[in-house]
């Protein structure tokens, strides 16, 4: 990445801090052509597209990057998130199931699979996946789950599991 390109990324980040994601995206568009494949730029672009709820575009970037960089869990997680909103939860779940092959101990992959199972009313599977996620990062997963509407149907089991513990 050239100095000018790095400066454009910094300016874009500044726009984000000011709550101006459209301007940030315009900054990236001005500095980089549509064939840019720098992961830093594409990650920032994905974050901006997500902020702007431009799901099909965010999904497109992520799905292309999954092919180029399957070792980076960001592409899988953000790709599933965007695909869920652009297309369907079923397609998003398929992405995360494949991500689990590449990132078997990634707490966010497992946690999101629990959410998807719960939303699709596969509650036993959701509880099982939630248990796997909690085993990897108990405090973070528990705190996320308390305010996650995707897990509302199993919330009583989550709360009862941790009642009286340091986490709950």
What does this 3D model show about the protein?
- It is a single chain.
- The chain has 168 residues and is mainly alpha-helical.
- The protein is built from 10 helices and no strands.
- Helix 6 (89-102) runs antiparallel to helix 7.
- The longest helix has 15 residues, at 3-17.
- The radius of gyration is 18 Å and the shape is elongated.
Descriptive tags:
elongated; 168 residues; mainly alpha
Shape: elongated
Most strands sheet: none
Strand content: under 5%
Note the gap between the termini: 46 Å
As residue ranges, the low-confidence spans are: none
Number of helices: 10
H/E series: HHHHHHHHHH
Present the secondary structure layout:
Blueprint: H1 3-17, H2 21-31, H3 39-51, H4 55-68, H5 73-86, H6 89-102, H7 107-119, H8 123-136, H9 138-146, H10 155-162
Helix pairs in contact: 1-2, 2-3, 3-4, 4-5, 5-6, 6-7, 7-8, 8-9
What's the short version?
The chain is mostly helical.
């Amino acid at each position: 990445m050239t100095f000018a390109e790095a400066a454009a990324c910094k300016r874009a980040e500044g726009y984000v801090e000011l709550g101006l994601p459209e301007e940030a995206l315009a900054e990236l568009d001005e500095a980089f052509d549509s064939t840019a494949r720098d992961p830093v730029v594409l990650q920032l672009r994905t974050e901006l597209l997500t902020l702007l709820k431009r799901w099909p575009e965010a999904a497109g970037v992520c799905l292309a990057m999954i092919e180029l960089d399957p070792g980076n869990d960001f592409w899988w997680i953000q790709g599933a998130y965007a695909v869920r909103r652009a297309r369907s939860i079923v397609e998003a779940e398929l992405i995360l199931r494949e991500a689990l092959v590449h990132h078997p101990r990634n707490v966010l992959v497992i946690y999101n699979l629990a959410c998807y199972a719960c939303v699709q009313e596969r509650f036993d599977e959701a509880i099982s996946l939630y248990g796997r996620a909690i085993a990897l990062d108990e405090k973070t997963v528990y705190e996320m789950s308390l305010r996650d509407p995707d897990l509302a149907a199993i919330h009583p089991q989550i709360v009862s599991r941790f009642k009286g513990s340091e986490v709950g």
